[in-house]
Design goal:
554 residues, alpha/beta, Gyrase A, domain 2, Rossmann fold, Isoleucyl-tRNA Synthetase, Domain 1, 3 domains, 4-stranded parallel β-sheet, 3-stranded antiparallel β-sheet, 53% helix, binds arginine, Arginine--tRNA ligase, protein biosynthesis
Amino acid sequence: MKMDVLQVLQQFSPIPLDENMLEKPVHAHLGDLALPCFPFAKELRKSPVVIANEIALAIEHPLIRKAEAVNGYVNIFLNRTTITSALLQKILDPSVSYGSSNEGNGGIVTIDLSSPNIAKPFSMGHLRSTVIGNSIALLLEKNGFKTVKINYIGDWGTQFGKLLTAYRKWGNEQEVQQAPIQTLLKLYIRFHEEAEHNDSLNAEGRAAFKSLEDGDKEALALWKWFKTESLKEFQRIYDLLGITFDSYNGEAYYNDKMEPIVKEIADKGLLIESNGALVVELGEDMPPCLIMKSDGATLYATRDLTAAIDRKETYDFVKSLYVVGNEQSLHFTQFKKVLGKMGYEWADDIQHIPFGLILKAGKKMSTRKGKIVLLEQVLNEAISLAQSTIETKNPNLANKAQVAEEVGVGAIIFGDLKQHRKHDIEFNLETMLQTEGETGPYVQYAFARAKSVLRKAGDIQPYSVDDVNDFEWAIIRALEQFPQTVKRAADDLDPSIIAKYAIDLAQTFSSFYGNVKVLSDADHLPYRIALITSTAIVLKEALRLLGMKAPEEM
Ligand code: ARG
């Protein structure tokens, strides 16, 4: 509606108006929008006070209830009832999902997300990648793109040679079966410890990886088993998070597809020998991109180049996103540059979506030696904290276990997404789970409260909007912002915009709920049911876009 008002005002302005020129008055009683007339004074050769007076007198439009000139500003009071009726009708229309757009026009976006490494714990970084990537996918879908979520499993590389060597020396089957990731990680750590004073171990590890690359049956069988067991553990986390993928093609998938790509790089005259290895030079200010080691082993970058080309051929994406931590920025800049040098114009459509660390008491939450934080344990702790809150607040709730899961997991997702992804985030379960403040449970709670009023008030009936009080108007103004908020979040690939919006709408609703006696005012009830239903729809949709559930009761 801001744009509509802008259009009305344009006819009085000697210069083109843009959205930013229309301000929000400091106090609500001064109106909904304010137009400062100072920028027009020179052109019109009149004082801003005179101009404001003239506009206020002349303006007339169904969206505008009245206009007042104050000190060179035109303060505009919108026609609340007209706007409210139109908006509620739009949100309640079951044939369109409010806030959706077709901006993406069905274009395909591939999203590389989660991508944990097998035989290693699922780290906090992988959690961030998973929830950020998933929300970005949901946002893009809402804006008319088709998304392909790719879990590029880290299941290839020299480390698997080390792991095979360690397992053959010190491993045993039962232990791996009982606690796969923990056992494999221990073996891997032991390998590194022993390799410090045993040189031949590293050579053995390299040889083992070579045999894996060459397709040695026994080596492959072991590797496959490690992979299956690891994926089982990861799957439990994905189930908890409620996240699915369209492809699990990881690094190993590209093992037999790299040769032609390396050849292509060479044919294009880009492959240079440097200290025995093959590299692509990227200029003065960037280290070269390593393509092949002296023993013929391929690297992380070789696989990513191959995967990028494969994704373009398979999906013909309009954009290819990689949700991976800040620390890999150089890698992405490098391989994008290589693709550009190879002549692929679509290299420009590749975008690294970096994010910061998760900190605990100011320190990186690490998955290294000794102090492993197992993500599954963290999730389960959040769920049990949510469960105990439910036990005290609402002991008679049906399906307590499910609600606890939705709240516990939601709290972690929201705690991550509410800040811009580039920031490091402080991880504190107690804070994330509070039902007051800027938390996931707070937003979920607002939704559940809305649902509870609706259960008591009954279904939507015919209604008319006769007057709109300040509390209701604040909700309407927030609801009206939803489509442009969704668009901005998708354009910026920034879920935190939705999280902040959800907080704002939840707060606005809570203040309405605390101040307006809904159920005892029969005259306004039908209209307020429509208003609360609309609020519930938008709150639930905002939560969905973050990858969260909205329990009906909690
Ligand atoms: N497995 C990698 C890691 O854990 C992340 C992979 C990211 N995706 C990619 N295409 N490189 O660090």
